[in-house]
Amino acid sequence: MTTNALRRNGSKGQAGDKIFSGAALGAGILILATLLAVAIFLFIQALPTFTADPTLVSGGEGFLAYIFPIVIGTVIAAAIALLIATPVGIAVALFISHYAPRRLAAGLGYVIDLLAAIPSVIYGAWGYLVLAPALVPSFQWLAENLGFIPVFAGPASQTGKTILTAGIVLAVMVLPIITSLSREIFLQTPKLHEEAALALGATRWEMITMSVLPFARPGIISAVMLGLGRALGETMAVALVLSTGGLIPSLIKSGNQTIAAEIALNFPEAFGLRLAELIAAGLVLFVITLVVNLIARAIIARHKEFSGAN
Amino acid sequence: MSATTTRKTSNDSRNVQNPPPVARKRNSLAKGHLPRWAVPGIAAASLILGAAASTLGGFSVATLAIYTAIVFVIASTVITTLVEGPRQGRNALATNLVYAAFLLALIPLASVLFTVLQKGLPGINTHFLFHSMNGITGAVDNASVEDGTPVLGGAYHAVIGTLLITLWSTVISVPVGMLTAIYLVEYGKNGPLARAITFFVDVMTGIPSIVAGLFATALFAVLLGPTARMGIVAAVALSVLMIPTVVRSTEEMLKIVPNELREAAYALGVRKWRTIAKVVIPTAISGIASGVTLAIARVIGETAPILVTAGLANNINVNVFGNWMATLPTFIYYQILTPTSPTNVDPSIQRAWAAALLLIIMVMVLNLGARLVAGLFAPKKGR
Amino acid sequence: MSKRIDVKDLNVYYSKFLAVEDVNIEIEAKSVTAFIGPSGCGKSTFLRTLNRMHEVIPGGRVEGEVLLDGDNLYESGVDPVTVRSQIGMVFQRPNPFPTMSIKDNVLAGVKLNGKKISRSDADSLVEKSLRGANLWNEVKDRLDKPGSGLSGGQQQRLCIARTIAVKPQVILMDEPCSALDPISTLAIEDLINELKSEFTVVIVTHNMQQAARVSDKTAFFNIAGTGKPGKLIEYAETATIFSNPAVKATEDYVSGRFG
Questions:
Q1: HSE-up of B199 (CA within 13 Å, CB side)?
Q2: Of residues A2, A7, A13, nearest to C77 (C-beta)
């Protein structure tokens, strides 16, 4: 065969394609490389904590003894937040998807998004200056009337800066996450299922328990898990609202601490081994939130595979 | 045609349920046999009872609302159960609780916005907007409280820091995020590398902001020594938070662009990169822009990563590559937690609320902007 | 301005799945060739191999030769972009670029490639292409309006105008009328008849009457069963295919006894 006319000026202009696809690939790899590099750097910086003489670590009993109480504190704060935010968040999502007038629903969804957009430091400031003082009488009432329960043991904090207050602020912050994710799932409920339930003479609530909630269960679980991830890692609400201290069972006294707040409060003055400790604490927080988030993603992913069949 | 109309409106379950005509515009309480005035009637009675109950133990708006709500929920549930039967009663209870939860959720939002406006507005003035905290000491604050003179010192330095750091993180995140999304959608398809990237972008989405700050500090500590705290470190930390958002939103938008448009361009002999740059991205640009704006709104209010990366400054610093820098969130944080004058905290609190108001305005403007952008640049339709 | 296509021993794959097997066909310049056959017989897949659009789909690849006036499209070193600028394609559903005006849609092939074109050249190219697609009179007053505002049939003709503006040798059409109403279909069929004086046209159609109306030669593709590769059964003058086919399967298909 003679020269192929199609090959003339064959590679002209292909450089652009190569540069562009190379840049796109490079950006993707950059993300992987950054995460890897930074994980390594973080580990290097945290390493002295694990190798140092345990008596030199804060608390004098090694890293585990140091980290344990604040991990528990983190979990307590997040648990309070979820106990409040889960039922309220799901109810609000139901309100928007199935109760509110249709014209209002879109606007309400937007309001919820705005709630999520308010910076955490402002929630923190609100918790510190408005919510905490407002809760003091309630805490005193709890201490007087329910003080026999360890979690409400008195005397109640006079400032209201307790882990319960921090938990409530966290609840306000994770509520929009749970609501907006749940709302999306609720709206995806097959209309046929809803209509089938209604056609059988079900009340609205029976329709919701029969068709909406079963369909949305995996979505709700993952929404709650993602909310949990946020609550575990949230810093400012706790750093501002909580008057920190050692691990104590009472939720209405000063005390307890969370990892994120521990880092934020102490990092600016930290150096040497203390710095390494805080970075190690950050690593622990990262691992905890990572596990929580992965579980949430796994649930979503499994759900996606099934939703095609519906 | 009528079938599709029915389906569209069927979300509004009342249409399907074949209710008696009375129930059309009322909530489901009014359905069945309770008369129209039942709900307002019960509400009014609950209000009276609630007012009575709340005056017993020290009257306040909060206790009034709580007692009224409790009385209303119980009363309407019981009455509905008695009149219409247990099934309707349960339905009424659920309806009431859902409405109550919604109102409950609105309280913190209203309270936060009200507080910020009420306490922030007095502090907003030109002095606050255009002066830094340079030279403002506890003595200055004490003097202003004792003499009753206006509070001095402002957030100018923090506004500049916020804008610069956010600008730099945007400059880092948008190209990286968009190119990554382009790789995922246009090149990687579903290959192993693309799946790995998707996975790690998910991981990044879940990183707590304080950990992102530590990431950046640790990175720069290894590069520049342990005390490297400056604007660019904060910008890198914020990028870690921003990139996944940008990737996700861009990816979603690129996926929506119909494959037919890509094929049409290819069939005209257009190169792939030009197809992406001139057909795919312009088609998706409104969604991408609005996603980027929301990502900016998210990081502009971040506090924790700034605390551990940019330090704290009282003076104006426009150099992100050197010296400590303040941002609005850290300014608020430190003004509250470590007031300039420990004996007279009011000036600091006032500055904090004023800064909070500024910050909220920025975030709201960005959010509204994102909506506008999504509408404005959407592909033109219609004849 | 038009070239012939010769296909030799072509096998078309999706990854490992053989979709179309061993096609040999000669397509004359300045003629209309129709591909007919039941759904899933590979006629559209085969059409897409004629301008290397098949490989846009992940895993799509071919074996064999496709010659455009003797030049093999699949020879190493041939840029698919060059191939596609010589062999244009019109798709099943009209797909004008939603972000562009009618005028920019016509100029898309030129502008998207970053070529500079003077204003007057652009205007004359737009008019010539739109006239060539029988659309000029309908849209000349609103060239700056978005292309997505036209009716389906007009959009499809806009896509044809966009294809001619690149001045290809061959135009491939993948069921161009299947999303259109009968009147728009008629307009497109008339247009195909006119296009033949300048271009080589290859059209895939589900509609046998359409094949009979517009084409000079017809190729019948068939498939032995699900999972089996599609094959070219018979290729002849259109009149022969519809009145006196050589193969029983063709006769069954065109007489409506099958598929």
A1: 11
A2: A7
What's the CATH code of the domain at C236? 3.40.50.300
Residues of chain C with pLDDT under 50: 259
pLDDT digits (tens, 9 = 90+) for A148-164: 888 787 777 888 888 89
CATH of the domain at A188: 1.10.3720.10
Strands C230-237 and C60-68: unpaired
Inside any domain, residue C155: no
Complex prediction ipTM: 0.89
What range defines the domain where residue C244 resides? Answer: 5-95+172-254
Residue A298 lies inside a defined structural domain of this protein: yes
Contacts of C208 (CB under 8 A, 6+ apart): C36, C242, C254
Give the count of Cβ contacts less than 8 A between chain A and C: 37
Overall number of domains in chain C: 1
Interface of C with B (CB under 8 A): 51, 53, 56, 58, 81-86, 88-91, 93, 95-99, 108-109, 111-114, 145-146, 148-150, 159, 162-163, 166
- Host domain of residue A170: 52-306
Q: What is the pTM of this model?
A: 0.83
Determine the distance from the C-alpha atom of residue B213 to the mean position of all C-alpha atoms in its chain, rounded to a whole number.
Answer: 20
Q: Give residue ranges of C with CB < 8 Å to any A CB.
A: 68-73, 75, 77-79, 81-83, 86, 113
C159 CB contacts (<8 Å, ≥6 apart)?
B264, C90, C91, C94, C95, C96
Nearest CA in chain B to C114: B274
- pLDDT at position C236, please? 92
Minimal Cα–Cα distance from C209 to chain A, Å?
A: 36
Residue with tokens 């009337």: A145
Report pLDDT digits (tens) over B108-160: 888 888 999 999 998 888 888 888 888 778 778 888 888 878 888 888 899 99
Per the domain annotation, does A213 fall within a domain? yes
Give the minimum alpha-carbon distance from C52 to chain A in angstroms, rounded to a whole number.
Answer: 13
